[in-house]
Design goal:
With 360 residues, the protein is mainly α. Helix content is 64%, strand content 2%. Helix 1 runs parallel beside helix 8 and helix 5 crosses helix 11. The two termini are 37 Å apart.
């Protein structure tokens, strides 16, 4: 929105600053951060009053989680509000990729909100049916994938770019749409599975968003793509503003979610933020790199798949409990120990993912 102030510029005044993506990204970061700090406590108070007993705690969960009973959920509303407000203020609203990412984020947030509301109102961990959530998720991601595909340059449409191999483009044709749907829905549910300890999911999401923001800015500049030998996707530079807003909003939320959490992110936050990461990867043609940057989420999801498959086949368990962060809880690791070590792993993976920009 504020980009239109450039119309008032003669090229040598303060309004000219709004032409620069980096300046507007900084503005989006601080807008979302201040929003989170300012509205965080009032929102938590409202959620606490409305929810009463807070998020239901599973009876079969780790014993240490019973002390968290009464903590309100739906804290993702704070992140979403800060993120979308800051993006609307600072991003160019004539950019199709910004709208794709925002609409995926908002839509998955609605799915998560419905799930959280069902859990709180029924005081049950069941929530909305998994099939319904998947169906809605695939519908939303299918629309987003199609719009992204037709909005890419003709040479990149319906094609999969591989990291490291600079000249390789795999033409998936109509299969690109279901592939992109799996990326977006998979990312959403992987982040959702990771969100099981105070602060565990939000920091890796912020780290991944930071890495994807750098990638978005790089592939959206022809001079950078020429130097790095990556595929040029005009317009994706504006996604940096969304990523900066996500980082700022995430910090504002983490202030209240740090152990012991005053509020849980809930599916409202985890599904929307995971969907956002998937959507960014699709519009920037870095779907494979997302699996590296978000490797922590991949491992969390795989631990559940392996556990379920092995149990059905043998009646035994691979892990003491899945997702894998609960396995380490069962082994006696303290919650902050697990969270901080997972943060470190997420940062290492993000650096590896960024390195693929130059390794060609």
């Amino acid at each position: 929105m504020l980009y239109w102030l450039t119309a008032l510029s003669d090229g040598g005044d303060i309004f000219n600053l709004f032409r620069y993506i980096t300046f507007r990204a900084g503005g989006a970061f601080f807008t979302a951060l201040v929003f989170g700090f300012f509205f965080g406590r009032p929102l938590i108070n409202v959620l606490r009053r409305r929810q009463g007993k807070g998020q239901p705690i599973r009876d079969d969960g780790p014993e240490g989680h019973f002390s968290k009973a009464g903590t309100p959920t739906m804290g993702g509303l704070l992140i979403l509000s800060a993120l979308l407000t800051a993006t609307l203020f600072w991003a160019r609203l004539d950019n199709i990729f910004v709208w794709i990412v925002m609409l995926v984020t908002f839509s998955f947030g609605l799915i998560g909100f419905a799930d959280d509301y069902a859990k709180v109102s029924k005081q049950s961990s069941a929530g909305v049916s998994g099939r319904v959530r998947l169906l809605l998720g695939f519908l939303i991601s299918g629309i987003a994938a199609y719009v992204a595909a037709v909005s890419h340059p003709e040479a990149l449409q319906y094609r999969l770019a591989l990291p490291v191999f600079k000249d390789v483009l795999i033409n998936l044709s109509f299969l690109f749409i279901p592939f992109a749907m799996i990326v977006i829905v998979g990312a959403a549910n992987a982040v959702n599975l990771t969100d099981g300890l105070d602060g565990l999911a939000i920091m890796p999401v912020m780290i991944a968003a930071g890495a994807l923001g750098v990638i978005s800015y790089a592939v959206g500049r022809s001079d950078f793509t020429e130097y790095l030998d990556v595929h040029y996707v005009p317009g994706t530079g504006e996604i940096l503003i969304f990523c900066a807003a996500l980082f700022g909003g995430g910090l504002g939320f983490l202030w209240y979610n740090a152990p012991p959490a005053a509020v849980f992110m809930g599916d409202t936050g985890s599904l929307s933020l995971g969907g956002a990461l998937g959507a960014i990867a699709v519009v920037t043609k870095h779907e494979i790199v997302l699996a590296i940057i978000g490797g922590l989420f991949v491992v969390e999801a795989l631990s559940v798949i392996i556990q379920v498959a092995y149990f059905k086949a043998t009646g035994k368990r691979v892990f003491l409990m899945a997702p894998i962060h609960h396995h380490f809880e069962k082994k006696g690791w303290a919650e902050p120990q697990i969270v901080i070590r997972f943060w470190i792993i997420a940062l290492i993976l993000a650096m590896i993912g960024l390195a693929t920009l130059k390794i060609r």
